[in-house]
Amino acid sequence: MAVTEITVKLDRVTKTFGEFTAVRELSLDVRAGRVFGLLGPNGAGKTTTIRMIVNITAPDSGSISLFGRTIDAEVQDRIGYLPEERGLYRRMRVADQLRFFAELKNFRGKEVEAKIDEWLERVKLAEWKNKRSMELSKGMQQKVQFITSVIHDPDLLILDEPFSGLDPINVELLKEIVLDLKRAGKTIIFSTHQMEVAEKICDDICLLNRSQKVFEGSLREIKRSFGRNSVAVRCEGGDGVLDDPALVSKLVRHADEAQALLAAGADAQVLLKRLIDSGATIGKFEMVEPSLNDIFITKVTEPA
Amino acid sequence: MKKFFSVVKREYVQRVRAKMFIVSTILLPMVMSLFGIVPAIILSIDAGSAMRVAVVDHTGKMYDQLSQALVSDESSQETQNNGMSQQRSARSIPFGNFRLEEVSAENQSAEQIRTTLDQRLRNKEIDGYIILPPDFLNHGQAEFFNRNPGDVVSRRTLQSALNRAAREQRLIEAKVDSKTRQGLFQPVELQAVKIGAAGQERDSGGSFALVFGIGFVMYLAILMYGQIILGAVIEEKETRIAEILFSSVKPFALMMGKLVGVSLVALTQLAIWGLAFSAFALYGSGVLAARGIRGNIPNIPLSHYIYFALFFLLGYFIYATIYALVGSMVTTAQEGGQLAMPIILILVVSFYLFFPVSRSPDSSFSFWVSMIPFSAPVAMLVRIVTQTPPFWQIALSLLIGFSSVLVIMWLAARVYRVGMLMYGKRASIPEALRWARQA
């Protein structure tokens, strides 16, 4: 792969709060123009990592560089940040609010007004422009919060659980916007513990668990390294075969089909043959890639 | 710096535009004047008609004196001087709130008179009666019978009138003529004269009153706006905006912006009231001047006005920053309200230092309290108007004060930031100090 520009680089970053180590010896590269998924269970250190990137808190050791330089106020203005903990001024009108957040990123003047209209139009809130935010529904407020992080056209956008609590239509709307921003060459760091969402929009991922990096790389490579060791099966009968621990290490039954993770050393062909021999009627037998969710669970529950 | 002004602008514009601000600006002076006027009105309400009092004067000399004393009590000085010697012949004369009636004591025993009067009292023909025994002038003991012993005001008025009447009568009997009598009761006046650097100057106490007034307005502004500053600092915690802000602006700039923004709102409101009051006072003094009454405009040097402004600001900001610090430590406004109670206490204590400092403005006690930021504003102003201390002391006091404001704000900003990272935990004071160190 060609050498790509690195937008965010963390080098052996550690951050402790008293006795508790939130992030330990973390190194990672966020490549320009890609969606980088920062994944991990609750308390893995995702939010602390992000806070160090946006300069809310400083690492105890290690270094962080953004756009090839150490962070300062000027670099800070090129970041858009939507924290997990977010809100709006309740009594402030939507437009005033967006103008204020733009000003805090040193984005002022006439262009701001045009941007406010453009973004409100885009998230379908144009007619709410002069309403106070307390009059907005929760979903609408969330879309306004999203605009606060992109209004100043940042080169690096950091989204911490951006879709939590949104209905599917709005999730789709924001997801489209995120992908558009990526196409426009922006770098996006996307933090979540919802693997289905991450799977659909991330190019690269980094999995954190217990303050440490478990793995990092492009989503495709990671999936490939896990191999096609999963089988989607739809069959009647043959239950005894699927429950055989020598063949299947883990079985997840959905409404009409089951997903079987092959045991180490087991062969899918052997499983198929055993199923046929047992007299089961097979409707579907397909080798599938493991879902990010499976990888996530496997890695997180693996003994360290 | 630009971001700082954005924060100031937001705080100011949002608050001044709010209905609350407009309503409180108009309503508060009205409520205040209502508090001033209503009690006066209520006290002047005359629930019933004049109180009818019968007087049984066994001395035979007191009735006229008493009626005159009551008149002089009710009406102004002029009647006292002019109407003194007039003899009143009517049997029942209105004296302000009292309607006196002389009951002849001749040809009746004391019991008979009392029975008759008791009867009249029960029939509500009179509201009370006074019996002055023959030896009243010697022993000074009289009795007042009425249906309503709870009416303290009337009893006190009667007593003081009787007092004056007895004094007058005793002097007459001691053969003191009326001119001497008047001379005896001429009040004296104590004129305070200040010996300043420029020599003698008459000080009507105007600058003193002004210092007291400034202290009072400061106290008022803190009471009103301290809580608002507290709320403003907590606002971003309660609405969970803090983290978004801190990715764009330094906590110190945010805190300072909030403090300055809210303070400008406070100053705007005070300025509106001040202008309205001055216009009112100017109009009022114009009316008084037209009637020939001239108010004393205190003779205060210009430099004092500058000091007044500086120390007022210092006093306001010192306490306002303490509110900001409290706001940085707590997560909800209620918690903040409780924690802020001691601030009011310090404020009240510093205010009362007015009195010891004004008695000995040059003492070392006065020096130290005028250096401590919390008490400096009032104490130093008192010293300036009494015995102006050397300039270096005034400058030092201002320097200490305003540096304290910056230090407290810096501390508040750190506590605030760490508190946010700790996720909605309320800080104890030692914890807050530790946070300030580690942030």
**Secondary structure category of chain B:** alpha/beta
User: Fraction of residues of chain A in helices?
Assistant: 25-40%
Q: What is the N-to-C order of secondary-structure elements of chain B (H for helix, E for strand)?
A: HHEHHEEHEHEHHEEHHHHHHHHHHH
What is the topology, as strand order, of the major beta sheet of chain B? Answer: 2-3-1-4-5
Average pLDDT of chain B: 80
Distance between the termini of chain A: 31 Å
Q: Any idea what the shape of chain B is? A: elongated
Number of helices of chain A: 11
Largest interface, chains and sizes: A-B, 32 and 24 residues
Low-confidence stretches of chain A: none
Order of helices and strands of chain A: EEEHEEHEHHHEHEHEEHEHEEHEH
Summed up, the helix count of chain B is 19
* Number of DSSP strand runs of chain B: 7
Q: Provide the β-strand percentage band of chain A.
A: 25-35%
- Total strand segments of chain A: 14
- The secondary structure category of chain A is alpha/beta
- How does the major sheet of chain A shape up? 6 strands, mixed
Strand content of chain B: 5-15%
Keyword list:
heterodimer, A: 304 residues, alpha/beta, 6-stranded mixed sheet, 11 helices, 14 strands, globular, B: 439 residues, 5-stranded mixed sheet, two-stranded antiparallel sheet, elongated
Describe this structure as you would to a colleague.
The complex is a heterodimer of chains A (304) and B (439). Chain A is an alpha/beta fold. Helix content of chain A is 34%, strand content 30%. In chain A, strands 6-7-8-3-9-10 form a six-stranded mixed sheet, sandwiched between helices. A four-stranded antiparallel sheet of chain A has the order 2-1-4-5, covered by helices on one side. Chain A has a four-stranded antiparallel sheet with strand order 12-13-11-14, with helices on one face. In chain A, helix 3 runs parallel beside helix 5. The longest helix of chain A is centred in the middle third of the chain and has 16 residues. In chain B, the strands form two sheets. A five-stranded mixed sheet of chain B has the order 2-3-1-4-5, sandwiched between helices. In chain B, strands 6-7 form a two-stranded antiparallel sheet. Chain B is α/β, with parallel strands linked by helices and 439 residues long. Chain B is built from 19 helices and seven strands. Chain B is elongated, with a radius of gyration of 32 Å. Chain B starts with a helix and ends with a helix. Chains A and B meet through strand 6, helix 3 and helix 5 of A and helix 1 and helix 10 of B.
